[in-house]
Design brief:
Blueprint (H helix, E strand, L loop, with lengths): L1 H6 L8 E6 L3 H6 L1 H4 L4 E7 L5 E3 L2 E5 L15 E5 L8 H14 L2 E7 L5 E2 L4 E2 L6 H10 L11 H8 L7 H7 L4 E7 L2 E9 L2
Parallel strand pairs: 1-2, 1-5, 2-4, 5-6
Antiparallel strand pairs: 3-4, 6-10, 7-8, 9-10
């Protein structure tokens, strides 16, 4: 959050308009002490969200891969934390990346690193490096992280395919105008961040 806030433009008139793709009001409230002194207007879009307003926070329904309800550069900055790995495969990721880049001159997009040894969604060592069918088979037998055991192999396959972790090379291909940074844990690059500053 501190890195993202450091990217925000200095504006003398009007609020700084932020679009959070896939975020929650709880996320922003938990770190309110970091941003409450700033003149912000934060729009949070999520699939099937119920529209509501909570002070500077506005929640709206929206699909990360198709945000045509917003015009180009409708915002000063886009924020997205651990969402792009859930939108689908490469075509859907590319569509989301295009929307992020289109909607604001500044963006910050974070995603778990494929090469980090612990898969963060299933909390299992090397799980994400196994073939999908092997992952699904394991998920039918055991609870992994907050997921499983799945009642059928079909359900397990559907679950496994909801997470597609990215490498830094892939993230750079999706965001060619960004600086790709790493968040490290004990020297390992745990997460990747695509950053473009206006």
């Amino acid at each position: 959050m501190r890195l993202f806030l450091s990217l925000l433009p200095a504006k003398s008139a009007g609020p700084i308009r932020i679009l959070d793709i896939g975020g929650t009001t709880q996320y922003w409230r938990a770190m309110q002490d970091l941003w409450e002194h700033l003149p912000l207007s934060i729009t949070i879009v999520n699939l099937d969200a119920e529209p509501r307003d909570e002070g500077v926070l506005s929640v709206r329904p929206g699909n990360a891969c198709n945000l045509t309800e917003f015009e180009d550069n409708s915002f000063d900055a886009v924020h997205s934390n651990s969402v792009i790995e859930h939108v689908g495969h490469w075509p859907e990721m590319a569509a989301m990346a295009g929307e992020v880049r289109r909607l604001a001159p500044t963006y910050y997009l974070q995603t778990p690193n494929y090469w980090f040894p612990v898969e963060p969604h299933y909390r299992a060592l090397g799980y994400h490096w196994l073939p999908e069918s092997a992952r699904a088979a394991l998920l039918t037998r055991w609870r992994l992280g907050f997921r499983g055991p799945s009642p059928t192999f079909d359900a397990a396959m559907r679950d496994v395919q909801t997470v597609n972790l990215l490498t830094s090379r892939q993230l750079k291909a999706l965001f060619p105008d960004a600086n790709i940074q790493s968040e490290r844990v004990l020297g390992w690059p745990k997460s990747l961040i695509a950053v473009r500053r206006a």
